[in-house]
Amino acid sequence: MPRPRSTQVSLEDTPFYHCVSRTVRRAFLCGIDDYSGQSFEHRREWVEDRLLMLTSVFAIDIAAYAVMSNHLHIVLRIDLETAQSWSSIDVVNQWHQLFKGTLLTQKFAHGGSIEAYELETLNDTIVEYRRRLMDISWFMRSLNEPIARQANKEDKCTGRFWEGRFKSQALLDEAAVLACMAYVDLNPIRANMATTPEQSDFTSIQRRIKAVIKGEQPIELLPFLGNERQPMPKGLMFELQDYLELVDDTGRVIRDNKRGAIKAGTSNILNRLNIPLANWLKVTNEFKYLFKGPVGTLEELTRYSGHMDKQRVANSGTCQYWPD
Predict the structure, then answer these.
(1) 16, 37, 74, 139: least surrounded by Cβ within 10 Å?
(2) Phi, psi at residue 39, to the nearest 5°?
(3) Residue 97: how many CB atoms within 10 A of its CB?
(4) Is 75 helix (H, G, I), strand (E, B) or coil?
């Protein structure tokens, strides 16, 4: 029996989650449909543009993404600190970028006078909007529903375009976040849609590579910060160059028709996290088969299961792939 999404998200344990949405009814996001011969490649751009736009509205950051033929992967981070720092008018303005809101929130946003009897209703609405703006279900709904409407209009049909529920996994530690990001970024290479990360269209790794050529990091994605420091800005505590080289090397290894190896210098990031090379290659190639729920060490999984009131520690058998 599927559990409500609210019982799968624990900010006490982690802000990082891996989400996957799949299409239905032979629907394609990209490529050529073998049945009809029609190309749907342009739909990947729809998804990417919408996804990156939503990061400016929600208190949710994107660490990695890959838009595939009939599904998409996203590694996201819930930014609780930003959501809590927004003033009441900030929350309303953020919400109104996507939704009309209510007559009361519209009046508040335009500087209208709020009567005393309206204050409680307005405050309750703002509390709810703030919650939604850091809710991964609302984020995925805001991503998927407009794409579904566009696709249905193009296909001249009605009905579902996406599966009813998207999949989400809690990523409980740095190793889980790193492995899941690499797994997502390498999806096009495993699917024979690309031979190198820079050729992997509509992925976060390609966007990061294009930016780093200019000496930049993409503003739409969660940045790499390097080593931990005080005060610690928001971002990933790895070196960007290390991550790009690690993904590139891993991509060469998993391609059967290419010779490749993880170079000694590149493996520094694995050494830091105490991940054996063999485990890294297995996890980044078989992530979706190995992990059906939360991902992390046995200690992290046990803590997460306790907070979620689960009787059983999910994925305890796959803890062998994580550092002790």
Answers:
(1) 37
(2) -90, 135
(3) 11
(4) strand
